[in-house]
UniProtKB/TrEMBL annotation:
The keyword Ligase does not apply. Keywords: Metal-binding, Molybdenum, Oxidoreductase, Signal. The gene is msrP. The keyword Transmembrane does not apply. This is Protein-methionine-sulfoxide reductase catalytic subunit MsrP. It comes from Candidatus Endobugula sertula (Bugula neritina bacterial symbiont).
Length: 323
């Protein structure tokens, strides 16, 4: 019997109260409210809807149970986040994933856990998600192509999930794979643009780092297919291609796993691929980034702004090399 993920998610999101996540509509209203308060002097007339929404807004933004991670960042709109994508399985131009989103079927999703651990097996999505507390974290997201966004992800620390499978002492790395059905490939998988399935990996300490996230939603709603439904990785200090989408397999390994982009162009896309403005891509600079939906470029930050939290993981490594 197939499980409907949307049913599963609606059960799951019922556990989240309204105050736990950023509702995009309220977020926009709040900004409008702030703008209008600045524009109007004290005692000036406020339109009724502004007054009516203020109580809900203050509850939404002061009482929600969410981490403060990224509270200072302004997230992009859902339209931007769900329209401008890289998801080669669903096509190669930026809007193709949205166009072809319905080709990805997420009903009855399972994740195989394999390799160096005590609890290998095939788990349903429900098995994977139960026991976890969902939280919203607003992260910077920096693609290796030198564009960036800010996204309010919903999910939990990957480490909390991995621990449940009892990785053993040989587990030095974690490998991830995206859905690939040879007999029924997704539109973008009919050509061998990459050696399918899309594969990614992390060193164990990177995978267990509390900032590394297993993501199931954006703006408090289930992930759009084009953003990697029903389950994806987000590693905010690494270039976007490390954040593999629509995961069906997780394997604990003793040796560094092969990763799709390194296989396809090893001199351009390394295993580590930490965001680093001081090391150019062979074909372009990484100093600055184009902010999606804006005319401006901004400076790229070391480790995408997460250096305080993650730099210690790379002590002794030569950060001038392109990893
Ligand atoms: N399976 C899979 N995962 C993927 C990709 C892909 O093509 N296939 N693209 C990567 C790249 S290059 C980026 S920048 C991000 C984009 O995530 P977004 O579309 O949610 O912004 O997904 C990453 N994960
Ligand atoms: Mo990317």
């Amino acid at each position: 019997m197939k499980k409907d993920n949307h049913l599963l998610f609606s059960k799951m999101s019922m556990k989240l109260t309204e105050n736990d996540v950023t509702d995009e509509r309220l977020f926009k209203q709040r900004r409008r409210f702030i703008k209008s308060s600045m524009a109007l002097s004290l005692g000036a007339y406020f339109p009724q809807w502004v007054i009516a929404s203020t109580a809900a807004l203050s509850a939404q933004f002061t009482n929600r149970k969410k981490t403060s991670i990224g509270a200072d960042l302004k997230p992009h709109s859902m339209e931007d986040i769900a329209r401008y994508n890289n998801f080669y399985e669903l096509g190669y131009d930026k809007e193709a994933p949205q166009r072809n989103a319905s080709a990805l079927k997420t009903d009855g999703w399972t994740v195989e856990i394999a390799g160096e651990c005590g609890k290998p097996g095939v788990y349903t999505l429900e098995d994977i998600l139960k026991f976890h507390t969902f939280e919203e974290r607003i992260y910077r997201f920096r693609c290796v192509e030198a564009w960036s966004m800010v996204v309010p992800w919903l999910g939990f620390s990957l480490g909390d999930l991995l621990k449940r499978f009892e990785p053993n002492s040989k587990a030095k790395y974690v490998a991830f794979e995206t859905i690939y059905d040879r007999k029924n490939p997704l539109p973008g998988q009919r050509r061998k643009i990459l050696d399918w399935p899309y594969r990614e990996g992390l060193r164990m300490d990177e995978a267990m780092h509390p900032l590394t996230m297993m993501v199931t939603g954006i703006y408090g709603k289930p992930l759009p297919n084009q953003n990697g439904a029903p389950l994806r990785l987000v590693v905010p200090w690494k270039y976007g291609f490390k954040s593999i989408k629509s995961i069906v397999r997780i394997r604990f390994t003793e040796t560094q796993p092969e990763t799709s982009w390194s296989l396809s162009a090893p001199s351009e896309y390394g295993f580590y691929s930490n965001v680093n403005p001081n090391v150019s891509h062979p074909r372009w600079s990484q100093r600055r980034e184009r902010v999606i939906g804006s005319l401006f470029k901004q400076k790229t930050l070391m480790f995408n702004g997460y250096a305080d939290a993650v730099a210690h993981l790379y002590q002794g490594m030569d950060l001038k090399k392109y990893y």
